[in-house]
Amino acid sequence: RHKFWETQPVGQFRDLADGSLPDGAIEPPSPLSEVRADPYPLPAAFEWFTCDLDDDALLADLYALLAHNYVEDDENMFRFNYSPAFLRWALRPPSFFRAWHIGVRAKESKKLVAFISGVPARIRARDDVVRMAEINFLCVHKKLRSKRLAPVLIREVTRRVHQENIWQAAYTAGVVLPTPITTCRYWHRSLNPKKLIDVGFSRLGPRMTMSRTVRLYKLPDAPLTPGFRQMELRDVAAVTRLLRSYLARYVVAPDFDELDVEHWLLPQEDVVDSYLVESPETHEVTDFCSFYTLPSSVLNNATYSTLKAAYSYYNVAVKTPLQQLMNDALIVAKQKNYDVFNALDVMENEGFLKELKFGPGDGQLHYYLYNYRIRNGIKPSELGLVLL
Ligand code: NHW
Ligand code: EN5
Q1: Is the CB of 202 under 6 A from ligand 2?
Q2: Helix boundaries (H) for the chain
Q3: Which residues are identified as catalytic?
């Protein structure tokens, strides 16, 4: 069934029933001297190409490859359209490795035809903090599909991760592979219902008119919680404390330090937005919420070419009820002209989705670990990790 994945140190479907296998690494690390020294062979017309994301021309090529060939929904109506600034942010966190930004080019034309990337992260599974690679943006040009190029890209990124003495990875996919640690559902909250219906992202409900629908999704003009404001550089220490103590309750979650928080959560326009509640009395930071910006191209629509989507990222509600905090997140997203606010059913999100008029989407997101077993998997609500 899975000619490639059957050869990899990942949970195999046939082991699902075997409760005797322990949690943790599936296979031990090798001595670095045994890590293959040279790149895996590619078909003769292609060559490996380590991408320099400082180079605006290269970044534009990567952007274009993904904008035309990356993930679509099951009916091919929308395609993710990660912006160049977003890609730079996603691929250059603290201590990133340039060698993990891996392109494949046509030797002759130098055209970028495939890509895969990793970034380093510390991820905790139960009480074990593990250095991992987060693998993302695997993409093969549409004209080169089904030629078994993806396994070559995956082996090559694995080799380059091993060269840094890192032996585990985390990744997500919309497709089922051996074997998810958990399967999450996407939920969607309409902010601009008329446009969403016009482009086919959502439908007019039964017995609903357009004007009733617009009214249903109406939001206040400004956030309601006193002390709700944008996160700033001076908040990094307080946000790190809040987030670390919050993520400690999940079975799988990132182990963020202040440098990570500064990178991943400090607002960057049209990339990541973060807000917090500063108590008007004590000036303490009590709550935090964030979302990232990932537009989708609208395929085949005469009126609209893109959907502006916000994706719920990390949220911590200590003093403010989570539902109220997320309602404020919806309000600022609406103010900033997003068409839809998306969230997964991870962490405590189940506790606000229905109440805030999110509806279940038709997409799922499966979470995976490479070379790390978690017996029986976990529930989405036990997952404290959001990948981009
Ligand atoms: S998920 C998004 C992936 N990208 C897309 O869906 C974009 C559109 N599609 C494509 O570009 C987020 C192609 O269809 C791709 C497959 C390139 C997906 N993950 O070349 P072949 C990520 O980026 C397996 C893993 O003929 P293709 C996460 C498939 O099961 N494996 O197919 C990435 C089959 O293997 P099998 C996937 O359609 C995580 C083989 O590829 C996969 O031309 C990567 C077929 O290859 C997917 N999304 O190209 C793993 N889709 O065994 C990281 C298909 O079943 C692992 N396949 O025969 C960790 C590495 C680091 C370890 C460090 C210690
Ligand atoms: C991530 N790093 O399928 C790796 N999106 O539901 C890639 N559906 O947008 C993983 N099909 O349900 C990719 N509207 C996995 C996701 C791939 C993209 C995907 C889904 C997620 C999606 C939309 C549009 C469907 C169009 C037809 C959807 C319904 C919204 C409705 C709003 C009102 C309340 C009820 C729900």
Answers
A1: yes
A2: 56-69, 84-91, 149-162, 193-198, 210-216, 236-247, 258-265, 322-335, 350-353
A3: 388
